[in-house]
Amino acid sequence: MVELKTDASIDAMYKTGQVVAQALTAVRKAADVGVSLLELDGVAREVLNAAGATSPFLGYRPSFAPTPFPAVICASVNDAIVHGIPTTYRLRDGDLVSIDCGAQLGGWAGDSAISFVVGTARPADTRLIGTAERALAAGIEAAVVGNRMGDIAHAIGTVCRGAGYGIMEDYGGHGIGRRMHEDPPVPNEGRPGRGMPLRHGTVLAIEPMLIAGGGDAYRTDQDGWTLRTTDGSRAAHTEHTVAITESGPRVLTARD
Predict the structure, then answer these.
(1) Which DSSP category does 54 fall into?
(2) Which of 10, 76, 181, 193 is deepest in the core (most CB within 10 A)?
(3) 83 among the known binding-site residues?
(4) Which of 118, 120, 196 is nearest to 153 (CA)?
(5) Is 133 annotated in some ligand binding site?
(6) Count of Cβ atoms closer than 10 Å to residue 24 Cβ
(7) Was 207 annotated as part of a binding site?
(8) Is 154 annotated as ligand-binding?
(9) What residues does substrate bind to (predicted)?
């Protein structure tokens, strides 16, 4: 069941989304050669704590997971696509890093992700991240009243496939509200004009996940969480929490 949010609820979700935006901004600023992924997790924790927010990631255990998630961010490096567990690994020059972060505040959830390169960026990585950001922007642009879910999926998929990248199988965005994961699922590829009609008050986490090698397959690490490309190519992940309104899409996790 899809819960349509009131305007007041969307305003409250914006407050949560801004905590997520602040956490990601702080993590991006702290990320440098020699900094560990656990240290980045600590940066995000400080932002959440200062805002009086909690993490929907910490302790989260869906049916596929062998253990509860132990951190407040997912930190996925190079060939890791999503769900990377922060470890003592220290960032190296040229690492491609994807950080996913969520917050829970006042009974509402927010969720967002960014990808960036630490130090010197390879041109191929710059192109991959740029395409992920364009795919996200295209999906957001299609998130308007009167469109359907397939229009969002088609917009994302067109950008990704047009650039020659793979789209992670079986994963996509999701509804979000009182919980981090709600109905409906938000595919990253689909046919325009198909699927659920988009109505005022629908709030979605739109999140393209791109694989540089062009394939869609992935494998799961022994930790049971980290999902990696099967061909060893790099990946990028971008995400925003977006409210669909009569006046257009409102990005609740927008960063300054």
Answers:
(1) B
(2) 76
(3) yes
(4) 196
(5) no
(6) 24
(7) yes
(8) no
(9) 83, 181
